[in-house]
Amino acid sequence: MKNFQFYNPVRILFGKGQIASVTQQIPVGAKVLVTYGGGSIRHNGVYDQVKAALQGFTTVEFGGIEANPHYETLMRAVALARTEQIDFILAVGGGSVLDGTKFIAAAIPFAGEDPWDILSRKAKIASAVPFGAVLTLPATGSEMNSGSVITRVSTQEKLAFSSPLTFPKFSVLDPETCFTLPPRQIANGIADAFTHVLEQYLTYSINTPLQDRLAEAVLLTLLEEGPKVLANPTDYDAMANFMWSATNALNGTLAAGVITDWSTHYVAHELTALHGIDHARTLAIVLPAMLRYRRAGKLQKLVQYGQRVWNITTGTDEERAEAAVQATVRFFESLDIKTRLSDYEVGPDTIQHIVQRFTERGVKNLGERADLQIADIEKILTLSL
Ligand code: NZQ
Ligand code: ZN
């Protein structure tokens, strides 16, 4: 096992009616900025629950944070928060609102010239405004991690940052807030969480049986509970199991002490940046080709994944690995998620565009063996056409 430090200070408030308890988690007398998205919380009662819970606080609101949150929009929230001198932020929504809020929290006190440097130059974050979250979409794990992905519209860039200062102080996970999710967002959430596990699991073994089995437990639970949620989004138990699985997929436990990959996410972010394709769908496009192209280096884990998750027990190792990839593709397609670039009308010109920007960015040595180069990424994307 690799040496590791594990730090996760996020308090989880899980279950029905838990929004009311945010009152006890926000410092008395704090002026609270409430951030949210395009309006889903106004239609499902979540907004009203939050307002009721915040009755004893002075609040300021900032709505309109879009999917794949825009730097341009978030900077308007930063200006508002500075003017209003807010003390605490409460993010209410999906991964985009949470990620956007992490950026706002770090950008408010940022002393440098432009907070975009936090993303583009990995500028150091010396402090951040404390924030909590009410999650309404199980998918990203943002509710229990310190990562954030932000899009800059003017340059079509989508970049990530993380900092120990951008963990939420708490996150409310009430499955009932997710009952209004449309099938497309549920499917996205299942595929995103599933891929998060695979990025931390399908690498090479260094004898970490506990982490492997934890990863497999999350995968198997997503496979069992995901379709139940799709069939009946108001099934409380299924939603609760899905929600906690998605959180566990990316809260740091699966990554502790193991070898991780993350190249699928790195490449896939470009497809959202350039074409606005939903995050989960870009993963479903890139992942199969990534696994096939890199089968030799991931062979032992692919065989284990096939056996323990998909019950694939016959054939040569290569055949089993291919069968495991095929099972994964069938699973994505069963969620009504298409897995080829051509399904989204994206062609070779986009591959050249990505190659060009990776070249300008000096991208190199991706993947668990730090051996994945731009030429490989070009071939992988070509395989996914
Ligand atoms: O904006 P509103 O009106 O709230 O509608 C949203 C949005 O249109 C809607 N929605 C959310 N909760 C709902 C609901 N509709 C009905 N009922 C509800 N309860 O769903 C739409 C999508 O929301 P969004 O927040 O964009 O989805 P998701 O949670 O999948 O977040 C995706 C973003 O997270 C980033 C992605 O790159 C993408 O920008 N990621 C963040 C990660 C992290 N912080 O660790 C890791 C991930 O790999 C990912 O990159
Ligand atoms: Zn993801």
UniProtKB/TrEMBL annotation:
Gene3D superfamilies: 3.40.50.1970, Dehydroquinate synthase-like - alpha domain. One of its GO terms (cellular component) is cytosol. Residues 9-175 form the Alcohol dehydrogenase iron-type/glycerol dehydrogenase GldA domain. Residues 188-360 form the Fe-containing alcohol dehydrogenase-like C-terminal domain. The keyword Lyase does not apply. Keywords: Oxidoreductase. One of its GO terms (molecular function) is butanol dehydrogenase (NAD+) activity. Pfam families: ADH_Fe_C, Fe-ADH. The keyword Oxidoreductase applies. InterPro entries: ADH_Fe/GldA (IPR001670), ADH_Fe_C (IPR056798), ADH_Fe_CS (IPR018211), BDH-like (IPR044731). SUPFAM superfamilies: Dehydroquinate synthase-like (SSF56796). Belongs to the iron-containing alcohol dehydrogenase family. This is Iron-containing alcohol dehydrogenase. It comes from Hymenobacter elongatus.
